[in-house]
Amino acid sequence: xxxKAFRGYSLxxxxxxxxxxxxxxxxxxxLGLGFAIASGTDPATGLYTTIVAGILIALLGGxxxxxxxxxxxxxxxxxxxxxxxxxxNLLIAGFMSGILLIIFGLxxxxxLIQYFPKxxxxxxxxxxxxxxxxxxxxxxxxxxDIEKSxxxxxxxxxxxxxxxxxxxxxxxxxxxxxxxxxxIPRLFPKVGKLSYLLAIIISSVVSSLFFSGKVETIGSxxxxxxxxxxxxxxxxxxxxxxxxxxxSSFIIAVLVGLQSxxxxxxADEMTGVKHNSRKELIGQGVVNMVAxxxxxxxxxxxxxxxxxxxxxxxxxxxxxxxxALFVLLVVVLLAPYASFVSLxxxxxxxxxxxxxxxxxxxxxxxxxxxxxxxxVLVVTFLLTVFTNLTIGIGxxxxxxxxxxxxxxxxxxxxxxxxxx
Length: 420
Known about the structure:
420 residues; mainly alpha; 2 domains; 1% strand; globular
């Protein structure tokens, strides 16, 4: 933990940190559940990840305001791993990504973030947003028996082919939730940050009271959520599994690093307090090595929760630790009630989150440039959506490098011509 954060620390700061941590914890609960389900895993894994990542990144991270946990950026990657290799191998891939992140930190790879092409970042973030949004359409419509695929177009084909089975009860539940999410922040700005949780609770209660048994819930699909954290257990790792999962682990590590360092940079701009990128990567590495031992999925710093943390007056890592401890307390005391949450209530929340991370304004600006950056953006976006994130990022970086080399060659030729 960064001791500099506690210089001049007072009871007033402690009170603000604790209150901020509770607010962020309330936001983190529905997002943890939702991102875990969207990633093809048990909803409880999202809560375990939130707890482990929240505590460890507060203790070991390089940004005092950072809130770690499951993020939307991982959804398509994690879903693809689960569908292709299974949940246990996802845990191994997450563990391996933690080792890679520690290596990145020791090698000071964090300083290279400033050279990562903006068009590529916005391209894959926008692609991820589309995948998350589209992935929630079945829950919104009440289509729970359709086959999931790691490919966007196949999932869309499956949805269209099953539209005759949509549930009006699920749609009504989802619309109630969506309405609350959109209206509460406008009418009651002071409690706007709690709109996600309020919307899920209210719409789930309405669903259970007026059309009980007509809408699928977390309990009906996944069973009850345990009221305790699982005992630590390291998944069985073999050389064959390491070689098979290395590409997936690498892309998870890159995503964690990018997401966490970009979030830390946003925190720097908001607070004027500079983060330590080397320490942040090593801290995230430890998080992603420990989380799988407690059945947790890969985690990273998350922009929306970190910004909320700062806006609520946080001044030290105590806020991040408090948010994790609050989620732990909720799991211990209230986990059985989470089983009654309807899946149709989670869908609009993740759709709104997807919309918020879509980078739509920046996407439009770069496309309007009609430059090489525009081509990099569009190619990265389309390949992320229609193939996978690894290909999307790889193609974006490759194109960016190609255009950079072409520009250097043109500059050299111009200098030669001028010299002649």
